[in-house]
User: What shape does this take?
Amino acid sequence: MTNWTLTEKPPIKRHHNVLNDHALSSMDKAKGCAKWLAAQGYTVLAIAVGRRNPRIEIQACRHCSALEGAVFMHERTASGVRRNWVALRFDCEVRWTETGSTV
Assistant: This one.
């Protein structure tokens, strides 16, 4: 086991650099998309960055229908019906959920 001093840096493998570059790039995309959504009047609730497209959760509102190309999954639950929507913007998944008995 190697003990690194505060002045030394451990060797960084190329694989780590690729993953770090992807994470930083995804964060930049997510930040830009979140700013765009906020400027359009949407409320951004959460941002998640993983190995694929960044995911941005927004609050469901009547303007969500303006996000062209959105698709949903219809789900019946004990409390009613739920639609989980997703639309792609700036290489990010924009997601929101509508709930209710007659969604």
